[in-house]
Amino acid sequence: MTPLATTPGVDAPTWPDGFAERYRKAGYWRGETFGGMLRERAAAHPDRIALVDPAPERRTWTYRELDERADRLAAGFAARGIAKGDRVVLHLPNVGEFFEVVFALFRIGALPVYALPAHRETEIGYFCSFTEAVAYVIPDKHAGFDHRVLASRVKERTPSLRHVFVVGDPGEHTALAEVACDPSEVPSGEGDPSGALSCPEPHELAFLQLSGGTTGVPKLIPRTHDDYLYSLWGSNEICGVDADTRFLVVLPAAHNFPMSSPGWLGVLYAGGTSVLCPGPDPATAFPLVERERITMTGLVPPLALVWTEAAPGSEHDLSSLKLVLVGGAKYSEEAARRLSPALGCRLMQVFGMAEGLVNYTRLDDDEETVVTTQGLPISPDDEIRIVDDAGLDVPDGEFGHLLTRGPYTIRGYWRAPEHNATAFTEDGFYLTGDIVRRTASGHLVVEGRAKDQINRGGEKVAPEEVENIILAHPSVHDVSVVAVADAYLGERSLAFVILREGAGPLKPVAIKRFVRERGVAAYKVPDLVEFVDAFPQTGIGKVSKKQLRSTAVAEQH
Ligand code: AMP
Ligand code: DBH
Fold this sequence. Notes:
It is globular, with a radius of gyration of 23 Å. It folds into three domains: 34-44 and 57-200, Rossmann fold (3-Layer(aba) Sandwich), CATH 3.40.50.980; 226-450, Rossmann fold; 453-556, 2-Layer Sandwich (GMP Synthetase, Chain A, domain 3). 31% of the residues lie in helices and 24% in strands. The chain is built from 17 helices and 27 strands.
């Protein structure tokens, strides 16, 4: 154990004993770990294919190979002093090594921190310093971006960061390919990757997932083996995932949706095969669906729309597809109606959050329910409250704020006691920030959002974070970032900017460039910029985002 090791209940609130006991008794928490799960699957069906990475040349991993490589890599990490509880920021695109690293870390109880491929220096620097990460794992170059340069800069200013592991040409860092070693070569006392998996324990943390967030800094979501594994097998039962499932990982593998709903982890749990898609566009994905006989995938609404439009004219045989899950942002009823006929498969809507609660429409729901609702929770023990602004339960069928508590919904963010005081009720309900209503059948319909967040087709932007960046511009006096409706993405971001007195005129592109040059994920760069003289204010003198949003709507017409 290093002094930085992390413990549930200390770094973040966890489930009170009574709840934990109940969830165990009900059979939701089965006392498994991810490392143990892979070990068991590898023993049960060693030669089945777990993973396919089709590009640049097709590589496959059987369950046994994935298990063995995870062991060897775990031994290598342990030999470099990476230990249980240590945080490792993982910043890989959809490549096979992502999965080797994840399982190696699971084996030694180190915690992956799942950065998204779009993240840049600002986000990565923050994740590394806030989590006191000991290692950072990157590709050499991806999508024209040299990650090694970013890594050098972050390493220089992050004292805890001892290692940068690179998939590909390492430059001044360490090649991941050179890390793996024989578990018997690891001196004792440096982790026990080859042993009986005594660490970690099922109730301990497995990883830190990211929240889309509403504040200036993203929050980290502590998930345990027990709780996350329940969300996996619960999802598998609902979606009919089994050993014959061939799942195409279209969205970034690090995101909670493609990881767990049911995602590549659910598919591994069931003994199926996950195929990594190098890009989400039909030109890349459709040939893979045909070649790999894909049966299931998950898409965000804008992508679902593109696939729906491209499928009828496509020369590729998509007939193996049985189920497409769509979620991450509101899917319009019109678009939802068109998906099944175009792709020749079932649609399932999924409304989930990395904090926990996931809802699915069901395979036996009628078409109306599938296209007009966002589904039912996974668990009978997912507690749902729908309340008004005063926190009182609204009558059945009416819209209100969604609060939830349950066997796989966190009780607090990691090292964020102040934020936790407002994001959770005293009795442990998570305030999702979503406005929903419940139909007579118990299905939830997402109406909108109370939280200050922009949802660009599933990519979440916290306005405050972008505002803080723009405020640093020398010509900017004040800024307010809001969502505006967009036919394709659902929402786009608009920055209203007040310039300083005496500042020369600026073009919108100068603001956008400024944000981009600060090294943040491209999806955070405001789509639109408008210069104004003042912001509308609320009764008590706060900036009225509501009024700003309606100004934007009015001006677009
Ligand atoms: P995050 O907290 O970043 O994991 O994002 C979760 C949020 O995404 C939810 O709280 C919703 O606001 C939004 N979301 C996810 N799925 C859907 C969906 N199917 N319909 C509407 N909003 C969704
Ligand atoms: O948007 C999300 O975060 C999300 C959407 C669908 C999610 O976390 C999930 C399913 O598990």
